[in-house]
Amino acid sequence: MKIYLILTLLFSILPKAQNSNAEFLRIPVDKFKGYENCCINRFNMLIGLIDPIENELRIYGYENQSNVLAYKAGIVAKIINHDNDNSKSILVKSNELVFVYKNLTNLQIIENEKISENQILGKIMTINSENYLGFEIWNVNSEKLNPINYLKDNP
Question: What CATH number did the domain enclosing 57 receive?
Answer without folding.
Answer: 2.70.70.10
